[in-house]
Amino acid sequence: MSGRAQLMWDEAVTGYDFGPEHPMDPVRLALTRRLVDAFGLDREMDVVAAQAAGESTLRLVHREDYVEAVKAASVDPGAADGAYGLGTMDDPAFAGMHEASALIAGQSVGAAEAVWRGEALHAVNFAGGLHHAMPGGASGFCIYNDASLAIARLLELGAERVAYVDVDVHHGDGVQAAFWEDPRVLTVSLHEHPRTLFPQTGWPEETGADGAEGSAVNVALPAGTGDAGWLRAFHSVVPELVADFRPQVLVTQHGADTHFEDPLAHLAVSLDAQRAVQVACHELAHEYAEGRWVALGGGGYAVVDVVPRSWTHLVAIAAGREIAPETVIPESWRQEVFARTRQLAPARMTDGRWPVDWKGWESGYDPADRLDQAVLAARKAAFPLRGLLA
Q1: What is the dihedral of CA 339, 341, 346, 351, to 10 degrees?
Q2: Which DSSP category does 348 fall into?
Q3: Which of 38, 223, 324, 337 has the greatest number of CB atoms lying within 10 Å of its CB?
Q4: pLDDT band with cut points at 50, 70 and 90 for residue 133
Q5: Are 255 and 298 in contact (CB under 8 A)?
Q6: Confidence band of 2 (pLDDT split at 50, 70, 90)
Q7: In angstroms, rounded to a whole number, what is the distance separating the alpha carbons of residues 330 and 38?
Q8: Average pLDDT over residues 219-243
């Protein structure tokens, strides 16, 4: 197996563009790529542009009629079929939508193939993580579910156990739905509580279909959860599940929209805590999956201040060249940010909260604390189904 990591990148992924008024501005991808370059990380890994996912690959997850509807809307956006979630406020149709979406999916599938075949130990596609798309419809800014397609491809290649960990502020509903009946895939999602955020799913009681009981785990966090609570929740649930499941590949989704500056959600997590979870996922891959790690992006709508820094840390960790939290950002990148956006760029690589202090579950829990209630609800719902103590 190659010790080098792969960065999946094709400049054309920035064509995934819902328009100037949409919060999912592709500048977040371009700025991340430039920040990765500013730190010289692409010299530490292989930069690979995979082919777009073809129809046979897309049909590993998506229905043929849906793929045809996306292709039709891609040619004529004005005729997008709303029955498939296309042409809506969340998912407006745009020319070339199929091609851009399939290209992003292809990068995640290519990452999965490279890791499974031993061509790379880790592979990152920060343009991916579009976890809301369903087999038969677009949802939540997501057209094709690249995370599900990457997992489905791993299964097709012979993987028997794949763990998927999603720390986006929104529930990873599309991935959970794709593998709801498949005990070969463990999906774990930490997200803001469905009472207060889209997609209103991800309740602790969602634990998998008959025959796959305990294959879905959901930690529904109260709005306002900050660094200490977020890290406590992650470490109180994820490592024990991964240790028990022993995946052959770990796939993780790192939406940056848990951040306190994100305009579309209500958690209060810093870049320092996001980086800590990225490091933890890397360590889990090495401890339980022989290092096989596919890392994806996801949501994130503070497109200058947060997303590029968060995902550059992710790339650096995968490349084996972690960037210290206090690191000053290269002036060349800050100038590019201003030239592109007329916004002032941040000066350092995190929010200055390093190291983040948190308490482990073994220290005991407070039954009156809302965060601890959320953790306990997830453990009680899913852990016994896996033969684990709640």
Answers
A1: -160
A2: B
A3: 337
A4: very high
A5: yes
A6: low
A7: 7
A8: 98
For the stretch 36-82, pLDDT in tens is 999 999 999 999 999 999 999 999 999 999 999 999 999 999 999 99
Residue whose entry in the numeric block shows the structure tokens 């199929």? 98
Q: What is the pLDDT of residue 206?
A: 98
What span, in angstroms and rounded, lies between the C-alpha atoms of 303 and 132?
20
Q: In the predicted model, is pLDDT for residue 3 greater than 80?
A: no
Residue with tokens 């596919």: 294
- pLDDT tens for residues 256-297? 999 999 999 999 999 999 999 999 999 999 999 999 999 999
The helix/strand/coil state of 185 is strand
**What are the C-alpha distances in Å from 288 to residues 163, 238, 244, 251, 378?**
10, 12, 9, 12, 22
Q: Is 350 helix (H, G, I), strand (E, B) or coil?
A: coil
Token pair of 52, please?
């777009």
Q: Which two tokens mark 323?
A: 């960037």
Which residues lie across from 219 on neighbouring strands?
190
Of the residues 98, 132, 254, 282, which is catalytic? 132
Q: Which residue has the tokens 């920040």?
A: 35
Bridge partner list, 139: 142
DSSP letter string, 284-310: HHHHHSTT-EEEE------TTTTHHHH
Sign of the C-alpha dihedral computed for residues 357, 358, 363 and 366 taken in this order: positive
State pTM to two decimals. Answer: 0.98
Question: For residue 158, what are its two tokens?
Answer: 């012979």
- For the chain, give the percent of residues with pLDDT over 70: 99
Catalytic status, residue 132:
yes
Q: C-alpha angle 296/298/303, rounded to 5°?
A: 120
Directed axis angle between helix 307-319 and helix 27-38, to 10°?
Answer: 50
Tokens 């009946």 belong to which residue?
181
